[in-house]
Batch of 3 targets.
Target 1
Amino acid sequence: MKSDLILIERNYQQKLTLADLVTTFDISKSKLIKLFNRYLQQTPIEYLNSFRIKQDCQQNGKWGLLYLFSKITICLIIVKTTHLLV
């Protein structure tokens, strides 16, 4: 488990997938997800995304957080607009 976290934290800027983690550690997808849920109450991808956000906020301070909120807002507007068009 610790080696999974280290891999994620060292490579968080790269495109990492669940398949990458499974292959690297020779563990089944379901077992990896169960371990993360058991010890971190998150899936591996949720952990990766939350780590990325924390790193961005630490490096960019409030501007990183504002950028994140603006991206989320844009995504929500697109989803809502698309939903209204359908």
Target 2
Amino acid sequence: MSQPENPSFHLRLPPEIKARLLEVKGESSLNSEIVERLDRSLEPDPAMQLAEVFRPILSDLDAADRVKMIKLITDAVEILQKRQPKRPRRATSGKSRQR
């Protein structure tokens, strides 16, 4: 038995947004580009996750130590950015991931 198609959803896009999406979509379809971007927007924000981890630690420090800790964290991130090549964009198969 064949799998049913994903439901169709008609969307009115301002021409400027459609043009920008068409410019950046690469070889994927416009639909795949929109689905991937929507999917990504629903994932937890890594910056917010880090903030939640550091918030209790930083709140227990006095102001001078908080400034030092933020500087150390910023320096560590800069070092990691130098070592890590930029992550390639995820490939899409045209189908959204099952959750």
Target 3
Amino acid sequence: MTTTNLKVENICRAAIEGATMVLRYGAEGMERNGLKPDEIRLVGGEAESLVWRQVVADIFNQPVVSPVTTEAGALNAVFQAMWCYINATTNNSDKTSLIAICNQHVKLDKSSRCEPQPDMVLVYRKIYHRYLQLEEQLKPLNR
């Protein structure tokens, strides 16, 4: 940013981009451990924003889609409670997985889908590389 473009909308976008860079940084740790999703499922307040969903798709270079119910915290607690109850009250041969419960109850909002835009993927790839450099330089301050 410069003094000529220091505007509220640019500061807001920078906050969105910064938060998404942190998410990608964390996701890369999961990838190093063999967990690589085919698409990003975005939940919470950011899932309601088309701009934020598109930024996530471009930074991650993966499609983004949100579930119909984007407030996932309480819903996930319900799923865990269901899983505990079902597995505590059924015999061993009828056990169910948490994945099966989620697959049964989570419905995706197809209209929320955002595909990565190749030109923006290239822009964000350069920005992310700079982000990683800055992250490395700032590590001594986090001790």
